[in-house]
Amino acid sequence: MSVNETLLRSVMDHIETWPNLLDQNQWRCGTARCFAGWAAELSGAQWISGERDQVQIDTAEGRWFAGSVVRSQSGELRHVADFARRELGLTEIAADQLFDGSNTITELREMVENLCDFGTVYDAAPKTQAEVTAP
User: Fold this and answer.
1) Is the confidence at residue 129, as pLDDT, over 60?
2) At what angle do helices 80-88 and 5-17 cross, to 10 degrees?
3) Rounded to the nearest 10 degrees, how much is the dihedral formed by the CA atoms of 91, 83, 54, 101?
């Protein structure tokens, strides 16, 4: 699976342009979204209900509160994190790390760059001897 660099960079650009609309702790809260929420919206997915909707909906990957479910352009219902992971071309591990609620904008930027450059959230560039032995 290769990462969708265009979407990764678009989401990051959107977040950096409107940092006040980032809330990594919730899929969506008012007009704010987490990275996964913005990835879903910028990919054309539509939320199927209000953000606080507690009605349970069956999706391809399980049962979720309707407030966290999106409809793809083809009509498929998916949990926002699963939809975003697939659209971004991420492994489950990479998505879990990128979508973590504690990530700052700086950390998100670094992970996006690493995903685009190396296909992983970590900097996979070889380290110099000085970097390896530095105190």
Assistant:
1) no
2) 120
3) 50
Which one-letter amino acid corresponds to residue 68?
A: S
- The domains of the chain are located at 5-133
Question: Alpha-carbon distance 78 to 17, whole Å?
Answer: 27
Q: CA-to-CA distance for 84 and 94, rounded, in angstroms?
A: 12
> Residues 25, 101: contact at Cβ < 8 Å?
yes
Beta-carbon-side half-sphere exposure of residue 52 (alpha carbons within 13 Å): 2
Distance between CA 66 and CA 64 in Å, rounded?
6
**CA 37 vs CA 29, 42, 81, 117, 134: distances in Å:** 10, 9, 8, 23, 39
Question: Exposure pattern of 46-69 as b/e (b: 16+ CB <10 Å)?
Answer: ebbeebeeeeebebeeeebbbbbb
- pLDDT one-digit tens code per residue, 74-104: 999 999 999 999 999 999 999 999 999 999 9
